[in-house]
Amino acid sequence: MAKSYDYVVIGSGSAGSVIAARLAEDRNTSVLLLEAGPSDRHLYIRMPAALGFPLMNDRFNWFYNSQPEPQLNGRTIHEARGRVLGGSSSINGMNWVRANPWDYDNWSAMGNAGWSYAEILPYFKKAETFDKGANAYRGGDGPMRVETCKAENPLYHAFLRAGQDTGLKHVADHNGYQQEGVHVTQRNVGNGIRWSTSQGYIHAQPPKPNLTVLTGARVLGIETSNRRAVRVAVQTAQGRVRYEVERETILCGGAINSPQLLQLSGIGHADDLKRAGVGLVQHLPGVGRGLKDHVAAPVMYRATKNVSAAKDLTLLGKAWLGANWLFFKRGLGATNFFEVGAFMRTRDSEAIPNVQFEFVPMLGEFQHGNVKLENGFQYFLSLMRPRSEGRVWIDSADPLANPKFVFNYFDNADDLEQCVQAVKAIRATVAQKGWDEFRGAEVTPGPEVRSDDEIRAWLRNVAGTNYHPCCSCRMGTDDNAVVDAEGRVHGVEGLRVVDASIMPEIVSGNLNAPVIMLAEKIADNIRGRSPLPPDAQPYYRAQ
């Protein structure tokens, strides 16, 4: 039996590094942070422009694939999940998006006390150091560095102009009063390097002798006694060990791995566990149910002038980029390429944006790391509040077997219709005067795809994940809820889940910043602290 700890945190990602670091601020407690993957001190992790490599590298990535998706012609979807210190915050696109304030008021309206926008805004502010300074909406001295992109490429300017041509407002801060409109993106980059949660909450902070960080530690299960989590079984390079937990085990594995580990530990739907050969500890039918994600698809165009980022990413250009970044931490090596974006409503019935457009000034699936890049530009459309739900499950008691999951994209017909509307909105935007100088031929869907039926067929062939899985261990009080409003697992003492899986509903934007906020807030509860005072700031809604 290995030594005991007051708190054992499983998973070092967008939530886990935050939770572990905040708990270790109480110096009379001992905290163990377990990460299955390796250290994050690697060029591909630290250089923002190299974001494509860890996405397609199983050294830093669980490299999961979904089960065949029924509404996507049976295609399987590659789902990148961080398996490295910092978790998915070490391999993501670094876009800093809080989602829409209404999302959190909606959480509260669903019966989750403490999660209204006024109650969570102080934790967003606590988490960040915004490069434009603190104000009523933004933080100025938190662990996460957030910088505003430079957006100097002329294609970025065309994107902003054309969006305004359609009637969208140029919003100065989409993480402040108004989300709807075109914007210059904000990213979690500081001093030219990726500012993951491990960077912000662990590496950039003074050492904490009461915090033990263990990489290469694959958690096999959470052991219980009298329905209390009492120890964690772990596979390490030295063999299998078990850590006693004196106070709480906090599971921060993410929306795929957290329900998997709960099920492996006997917590889930009794019938599911019986089929997998796992003994029942607590019947919680909602474990693994309700999985959601932002379904996404790329709309691509060639450019008539050679101004895209591809011209700087030749073999010689990459050498210059690398040298400039290695020695000075500047230049293209310090960008994530997603430097402008937009949130819009595709129909008047929506009170807040229902689609997001992320923009890249080049063609090619650059996230695969080795695909030829070409002159052009692309809009990535994402559906913000899909109704389609999937699930996560295990089909054996083997803790080393990959979990099974399916997103069921477009299972709800309206999700598909909203994506059709989004494609039309992109085409209408690219037809505006703002794009006249650079607009070339449409590459995807392509000029042959015109009717709604043709767009629907194209979406079924190409749509996939925006890497935002959530809601598979939802908080709430109904029969399908897995945790309460503080992440405590129903029916099991000393066990919490804190990550995107406990979101009661998917939010309108990228998930990294919301999960960090969520972890900051629940960390105060674990420590016995009173919540930060609510901060009731107004926000924009179309109706």
From TrEMBL:
Record's keyword terms, sorted: FAD, Flavoprotein, Oxidoreductase
Gene3D superfamilies: FAD/NAD(P)-binding domain, Glucose Oxidase, domain 3
Known cofactor(s): FAD
Domain Glucose-methanol-choline oxidoreductase N-terminal: 82-105, 254-268
GO cellular component: membrane
Pfam family, one: GMC_oxred_N
Tagged with keyword Oxidoreductase: yes
EC number: 1.1.99.1
GO molecular function: choline dehydrogenase activity; flavin adenine dinucleotide binding
Entry keyword Oxidoreductase: yes
Coiled coil: none
Residues annotated to bind FAD: V84, V219
Family affiliation: Belongs to the GMC oxidoreductase family.
Protein name, entry field: Choline dehydrogenase
Protein's organism: Tabrizicola oligotrophica
